[in-house]
Predict the 3D structure of the following.
Amino acid sequence: MSTPTAQPTTASAKPTTREYLWVMTVRVDGQEITAKSTCAFPAGATREQAFDAILRQVSQDIGKQNLTVGFFALEPNTL
């Protein structure tokens, strides 16, 4: 899985992207596959946009389409 990184910012500037950790479990051809990684999305991006982008990436990574998502978590990566 590719791991985009957020751009460094100065203390006075607002970040233009935010880094997230995601976990997704999909079912395809009778198998369950769980993947996780980090990604960065621009400020103002929606959870739906993130879900769609991550699902496309997982689909490409495993070389399958028509995945059934059983679990999805998306959280800011900074504690």
Observations:
- Strands lie at 17-28, 31-42, 68-76.
- The domain at 18-76 is CATH 3.10.20 (Ubiquitin-like (UB roll)).
